Amino acid sequence: MTAAATPLTPETEAKVQEIGETDVLVGIPSYNNTDTIGHVVRAVSAGLAKYFARSRVVLVNSDGGSSDGTPEAVSRAVVDLGTLLISEQQSPLHKIITPYHGIPGKGSAFRTIFEIARRLKAKACAVVDSDLRSITPEWIELLARPVLEEGYDYVAPYYLRHKYDGTITNSIVYPLTRALYGQRIRQPIGGDFGFSGRLAEHYLEKHVWESDVARFGIDIWMTTEAIANGARVCQSFLGAKIHNPKDPTADLSAMLVQVMGAVFALMEEHQPVWGGVKGSNPVKLFGFQYDVGVEPVNVNVDRMISSFRQGLADLEPIWREMLAPGTVEGLLPLKDCPLQAFRIPDGLWARLVYDVAVSYHHRVMPREHLLKAFTPLYLGRTATFVLETQGLTSSEAEGRIESLCQAFEDRKPYLVERWGAGRE
User: Fold this and answer.
1) Contact 112, 5 (CB under 8 A)
2) Are residues 198 and 277 located together in one domain of the fold?
């Protein structure tokens, strides 16, 4: 049974019929991004003209009802190809600017982009965020060409980031996704992706579009669906992703609930796939790798540790419900150790995350309560990473993340055993 076709506006339907078919389609989801989207559209337009001059190309802006003139900014944004030393592109760039339907959020925007890609029989597609300040025309080549010319179905982004940016990815989502599915995709929730028209059709057929996964977890869902369904996956080096970095303690609980809820829901769906996977394999990385300056991220270790200790004081009975006894005992010495000695070791953290996943699966308490109670634990682990890497460069800190991934892989049998054992 396939999901119902995504409705398009009459204007969009007419535009799709007029275009007929395309080779390369780039989608930009947006909501009130008038300050940045013009730059993104110009970069995409230049990338399509420079690298896909002989291909039929379409840019789709899928907008969530912006009130600040975002669609008009997309319409106005043009690039002078001559100033970029790009000879005139042979195919015109078609722009489709359309509102999306469905629940508010990036997932519904993507669904409209996938539907237009399906109708236009697009061979290669990419989606990029509408608030990027660091996007260049080369991103479009790096996201679309592996699909168009190398036979890949899914291209994940590989960014250089400050060592304290993306802490949910570094401490949970990357190690967990890698250990589960055996593929070393470094940025599984990166936000900018390439994919085949075939994979876009697969995404459309899934019944997730009215769910929280579509609302909050679309990036990790796309990556996981691709891997779990045997798509050929690769990565492309995009340099720095410049956005507005957040202190890991700021506005964190809601984001953690959303991301981890999506990750754990996907674990339930794909257990037959990940249950038998052992170890992990490198994933092909395209692009010229270079060092870039990354924006600093300020962190407050004292505040993170005090949040963890407050959690231990207030939530210990709940933590005892959601964690195995040995895991809780490993945390108790952190109650009053000296600040510089505060550590949640890699092996203990891997077991802890697996315990939370198992408790989510067996519904030991309301799932939102479980995920909220996880927040102080995550802050404790983030404080550990900061203390361990204070004197290291971002590339040196990557070695610590590799060690953490190995701990997740080594302890995966623990997860598999507890997952299938039923509620204890």
Assistant:
1) no
2) yes
Which of 216, 251, 286 is a domain's end point? 286
Mean pLDDT of the chain: 92
Residues 256 and 403 in one domain: no
Specify whether 321 is located in the same domain as 278.
no
Question: In whole angstroms, what is the distance from residue 261 CA to residue 355 CA?
Answer: 14
Strand order across the beta sheet in which 124-127 lies: 93-99, 57-63, 24-30, 124-127, 193-196, 154-160, 233-240, 285-286
Dist CA 348 CA 353 (whole Å): 9
Shared domain check, 228 and 93:
yes
Other Cβ atoms less than 10 A from the Cβ of 416: the count is 17
CA–centroid distance for 291 within its chain: 22
The whole-angstrom separation of Cα 114 and Cα 199 is: 9
Domain boundaries, position 390? 301-417
pLDDT tens per residue across span 238-264: 998 886 444 444 567 788 998 999 999
pTM for the full model? 0.94
CA distances from 26 to 44, 92, 116, 239, 411 (A): 8, 14, 11, 19, 40
